[in-house]
Write a structure and sequence with these properties.
alpha/beta; Aspartate Aminotransferase, domain 1; Aspartate Aminotransferase, domain 2; 2 domains; seven-stranded mixed β-sheet; three-stranded antiparallel β-sheet; about 40% helix
């Protein structure tokens, strides 16, 4: 996948293709890295135990119900094999890695496509399910931004299937539908949590999987030693202590989202309501627009990798006001 399609390009000044938190001070991150530099010159904890203990207290779970990975992606790849899954069900369009783990592991992939307004009928979904299936749900969903209710997701568990909820963007949402507190009640419910986006530490790679302790134990035994680096362990704990950061982020995202939506109402661009820190847009000449903004050192996320989206769709991250204005001005220039 190209840099322009997937984001993270070093060639652009304004990267709206990656969904990192713009309201975390780079100076603050630098100070945390500097104050924890000693962890870069010695081996980290074998199983990130201090982080797991911290998270167990933070979420009100047992340490045996949590494991940490070198980013949440690492843990995503282990779960299907440990559960001996035969079919993976996804709600499309969604994060493409769910589909890739099916291909890599030789698991049948069953995509369930949404309506035009990105609505999924959970009653119909239940009719598709078979015993032992793994249903993977991104909540809020990437790239559509819609959010699923706890009740709808918990209702799937009665079908004797496994459900994995990826809550990578839940901390950005003003509507809390997290299922972490429900882990203790369901053996077939798992929650994937990434700290990359909310803390804007993509390069440090740290994520966690929460679920049934027997399954978590099997995953821990398969993970390599020292899979989470020492700086990532310490910085994640420091960030989690800062509860005001997440609340501040939610307010800022809501404010900037409103600003962008009000501007898009004045343009020939269709936007979709979002509970995350990004917006999915549908527009004519999207491909020309992508080329246009790239020449101006701006990158947006293309439809590449998302099932069910044609070339008229792009996704933009919600940034701070300065960068959002630059993006809107570029839209206006394009439509002159």
């Amino acid at each position: 996948m190209s840099e322009r399609a997937h984001g993270g390009s070093k060639k652009v000044q304004y990267d709206f293709s990656v969904n990192l938190n713009p309201f975390v001070s780079k100076r603050f991150i630098k100070s945390l890295v500097n104050s924890n530099y000693k962890y870069a010159i010695k081996y980290p904890e074998e199983r990130a135990d201090s982080l797991l203990k911290f998270l167990a207290d933070f979420y009100g779970l047992k340490i045996e119900q949590i494991t940490a990975g070198n980013g949440s992606i690492e843990l995503l790849y282990y779960l299907p094999s440990v559960l001996e899954i035969k079919r993976i069900i996804t709600l499309e369009p969604t994060f493409c890695e769910y589909r890739y783990i099916s291909e890599i592991n030789g698991i049948e992939h069953i995509p369930i496509y949404s309506s035009d307004k990105f609505f999924w009928d959970f009653d119909n979904l239940k009719n598709v399910l078979r015993k032992g299936d793994l249903v993977i749900i991104c909540n809020p969903n990437n790239p559509t931004g819609n959010i699923f209710s706890k009740e709808d997701i918990l209702g799937l568990l009665k079908k004797d299937v496994f459900v994995l909820v990826d809550e990578a963007f839940m901390d950005f949402s003003e509507r809390d539908e997290s299922l972490i507190s429900d882990i203790k009640y369901y053996e077939n419910l798992f929650v994937l949590k990434s700290f990359t986006k909310i803390f804007s530490i993509a390069g440090l790679r740290v994520g966690v999987l929460l679920g049934d302790e027997k399954v978590i134990d099997k995953i821990k035994k398969r993970l390599p030693l020292w899979n989470v680096n020492g700086i990532a362990i310490e910085i994640t704990k420091e960030f989690l202590k800062n509860k005001e950061l997440i609340e501040k982020t939610k307010k800022c995202v809501k404010r900037e989202k409103s600003f962008l939506i009000n501007e898009f109402k004045k343009l020939p661009v269709k936007y979709f309501d979002s509970y995350a820190n990004f917006l999915l847009l549908k527009m004519d000449k999207a491909k020309s627009f992508i080329d246009f903004v790239y020449k101006k050192n701006i990158s947006v996320r293309t439809n590449s990798g998302f099932l069910g989206l044609d070339e008229s769709y792009i996704r933009i991250a919600i940034k701070d006001r300065k960068e959002n204005r630059i993006l809107i001005d570029t839209f206006k220039e394009f439509y002159k």
